[in-house]
Request: fold
Amino acid sequence: MQIVKDHGPITGESIAEKLNLTRATLRPDLAILTMAGYLEARPRVGYFYTGKTGSQLLADKIKKIKVADYQSIPVVVNENVSVYDAIVTMFLEDVGTLFVVDDESLLVGVLSRKDLLRASIGKQELTAIPVNIIMTRMPNIAVCYKDDPLIEVAERLIEKQIDAMPVVRKTEKGYEVIGRITKTNMTKAFVALAKDDLL
Reply:
């Protein structure tokens, strides 16, 4: 890398000559440095140093990750189901957030653990209360799209202090829920990045 920094752009042959190596011996090393983003190669010009640090290269990698790469299957309930049924669904599906849809399967609300816990405190009959009474409604629902950068969605989860966000597709009638992004999805991306499984 130092040779390229000092003499770039420089051909592979010239680098090999300076190191007293053959071009074939050097080829795998140059390929790794190029794939990692430290060097760039241009035909008939040679190699040159990108000037990027390891943290800049990591940041570039993170910014390329899309919601679609890590979204999971959404768990939805109809707006007319009871709070009791929503609690059972949340327990059986092992999720912390339910997305509430109307009869046309369009997003109308979100139910968190806190919403269901709040409704459970007191003497109300949970089988008689529909979830549309206690859910967070549009337009107060943060949504994201499959092509959004994952890092931006992570920032919104932190900013809004929520555990999950519906991944939606906009239709003429409203939002169709096609996935979910949760703090667990973010953790999976983080672990994959640490293991260098990404991109």
